[in-house]
Amino acid sequence: MLDEGRRAFISLLGGAAAWPLSARAQQRDRVRRIGVFMPGTADDPGYQERNAAFVQALGELGWIVGRNVRIDYRWGAGEVERYRAIGADLISLAPDAVLAEGYAAVSALQNATRSVPIVFVDVIDPVGGSLVASLARPGGNTTGFLSSEFGFSGKWLELLKEIAPMVTRVAVIRDSAIASQIGMFGGIQSVAPSLGVELRPIDIRDAGDMERAVVAFAAEPNGGLIVTPSAQARRFRDLIITLAIRHRLPTVSSDRSDVVSGGLISYGAERIDQRRLAASYVDRILKGEKPADLPVQTPTKYELVVNLKTAKTLGLEIPATVLARADEVIE
After folding, report:
1. What is the pLDDT of residues 237-270, one digit of tens each?
2. Which fold has domain 31-147+270-300?
3. How many angstroms separate the CA atoms of 40 and 231, rounded?
4. How far apart are CA 173 and CA 110, in angstroms?
């Protein structure tokens, strides 16, 4: 009887010890859910390429779509007025983590949750925009990767003067509803006097008003454009490119996709690299780390892209010094 009692007791202990291991295995093996909130559209080749890089990087870290992770995509299509509803819808799916691009998308997600981890890309000033407490210690449920700092904005004007020295007037197309856009304009302003350039901000919140402002600006000579990054800039990308070419306005932006779509030149953070880095943060979060403990990182790679066909249409000859620095030249 004693032996039987002892065996039963040992069996009970073994079962109790095995239960946490089993539970942990089930937790580890369950299919995780990742939300992705992008400001563009699903058919945009640039976003298809970036999202593919994110999925590939996840796969290299052991997260295989259809096996141990699923991804739910939501697209803002630049319709910022719908972002809160889109963010709430994505959070209602109870994702384990969310990847989001741009200030507006992250802000909408934070409005919907303060617990689901959010990893952002392509945000300019997350501290000033109250997305995180600091870069080193983000706090809360959000961290990610900057697209640039305010001082970087002046490089767009320097580049514009390098490729089009005759430019003395520059319209800066921006979304003034985003606080970081004011900071970017300030960065451009800081170098304008030394380059002999007069600046004019043009709001992009309404397509009709923006078009009229660009047409009026182009009525005087020696003009150029800088397009600061925002969801609205992506939404009206084709219109901006059309206006720039029609009115022969040399234009600099931050996004390679603009140049692929017919824009003149871009200089900004390498978006594919940011998606791969974002995958590493999502991996760490899925393995138990907290966004609050993962510092916001600055870009490690930048890319310069030139469209020679557009340059020819505008009657510009891109300097050899610029072409030598270019990461990609579209013929």
Report:
1. 999 999 999 999 999 999 999 999 999 999 999 9
2. Rossmann fold (3.40.50)
3. 7
4. 27
